[in-house]
Amino acid sequence: MNHASSFSQDVSPAITRRDGRLFRSGQPYRILAGALHYFRVHPDYWEDRLRRLAAMGANTVDTYVAWNFHERTEGEPQFDGWRDLESFIRLAGDVGLDVYLRPSPYICAEWSNGGLPFWLTGRVSALRTSDPEYLAAVDRWYDELIPRIVPLQAAFGGPVVAVQIENEYGSFGSDHTYLEHQRDALRSRGIVELLTTADGITPDMLTHGSVAGALPTFTFGTGVATAQELRRPEDALVCSELWGGWFDHWGEPHHVRSAESMIGTVDELLAAGGSVSIYMAHGGTNFGLWNGANHDGALQPTITSYDSDAPIGEDGSLNAKFEALRTAFAPFHAIELPQRPEPAPVQAAQSVPLQPVTSLRDFAETLPMTGASTPMPQTFEQLGVEDGIVVYQAQVDVPADATIDIDTLHDRATVFIDDERVGTLERDGRLSLSLPGGARRALLTLIVESLGRINYGPRTGEGKGIMRGVRINGRRFVHGWTHRALPRDGVPSAGAWEAADAVASADVTAKSAADDGRVAGVARAAIDVETPADAWLAFPGGNKAMVWLNGFLLGRYWKVGPQQTLYAPAPLWRSGANEIIVLDTDGLGATVDVRERPEFGLTEEFVGS
């Protein structure tokens, strides 16, 4: 089958390579790129952020394509609204930027599941290999995606000048047949522009991540000299990810990198004749539950913010790194760089009360049932649940003194015996309890939350929920489970419950108090805004929650930090009353604070290798 549609294959790519250099229109050329992911930026701000990138001196925008963002339900890919990739690419061209496209199937990017759909990883174990079932799914996806990209290539008058085959494959696998398949899948569907791979700066990574017909590029923080040693003489020196900052996990410091450190590496690369993409130039936000996670002895969920201490901040603000890059890139432009855009307006600070609406235990009962009763608890994947919360319930005979073990819990469970909260389990923990009044038959309720799907390494694709079973006293399995799930993109509907001012707070507290006495459950607040503008939301005294603004899931806060505020961009606000809904599993605060600037918590300097 000829996937190249009606476009002639007798065309030339915009950028070519020979004798260790890149060329464009017969002249030596540098790619000066910055990473900016359309799926992490509200579409109303795409143009603003692209213009800031151009003002920084970039000639190219670098973006991944997150497969799971587009095909959340198998067989139902979406390319409209926030998912209108073609509009983003055209907009980049209108701004004067080329596009370096890094499509699926796998992107890492600290994004949920590394960009792979949960429905695929739930049934295929041999990910990123030539496994027939995996390749069939990738091919179906590419049949949807690539024909949209073909007419947007520079060869046909569009802005796309380079396309990446896979992402850091040399640190993951060794299936060369798979890499060849990915290369051929792009070429056979009509991609004629420069093909690349991207890998870390070790010989092993370069060997296993490279494939004939694609330019090997590097990812590093400070490895220019090493990359020069590894580069073949005929290949141009390209760093497709120069880490000017770093991402954060919950419970760790906020990572920063000084402008002096970053620009030192950039200047060294440019002096060596190299091309560069700053990762990230503008990080944006892991809105909703799209944050990924790592695993290094324990699960390490990524925070909602993806600011990454980038030159262009999460809210579009410009910093010293922006100025340093503008100075470094300016000599490579024949005309003066665009002026720096003005800062976006922000809302004035205010604080409003956060009113409890229902307890965590009662909230669990409002969620819709998912599937039939089953002998063993089902995983998120078996239930068709992408992320969020699943409530597991079963009748159980509980001894007076007992332990509850959840065998392979992914990731966190709040445990109730009847209406009494008895504790919280993290991953494969054990909960010991002593029941007043002795042994009894009771309803066991486990409110299980996915904290982020692993995006890097051998655990990529790992499932969520209760993976094996629940045991009493380490031996007896609990059987006969029902399941409830928070609907995808769902919001706890405060309007469906009794008005907040009619709820007796003592009743809410009695049903939802955690061990330290703080109230867990759902609360709401109303924020009046005259003119919509950017804001940062803080939840003093809150513990661990999901937050919705006017029905849109902003992300999470967690008292372990480092992130202290959630970015709430202007397009999500409306003039007049705005509704905040908070679902805190561990204990609500008393207020919602609107702040004029972000707070990322304690910092730690990062340089990278």
From TrEMBL:
Q: Where is the Beta-galactosidase 1-like first all-beta domain?
A: 377-486
**Which reaction equation describes what this protein catalyses?**
Hydrolysis of terminal non-reducing beta-D-galactose residues in beta-D-galactosides
Q: What is this protein called?
A: Beta-galactosidase
> What's the source species' lineage?
Bacteria, Bacillati, Actinomycetota, Actinomycetes, Micrococcales
Q: What are the protein's UniProt keywords?
A: Glycosidase, Hydrolase
User: Is Ribonucleoprotein among the key words of this record?
Assistant: no
For whether the record's keyword set contains Hydrolase, the answer is yes
Tell me the organism: Microbacterium murale
UniProt family annotation: Belongs to the glycosyl hydrolase 35 family.
Q: Which InterPro entries does this entry report, sorted A to Z?
A: B-gal_1-like, BetaGal1-like_ABD1, BetaGal_gal-bd, Galactose-bd-like_sf, GH, Gly_Hdrlase_35_cat, Glyco_hydro_35_CS, Glycoside_Hdrlase_35
According to the entry, every stretch annotated as the Beta-galactosidase galactose-binding domain falls at: 525-578
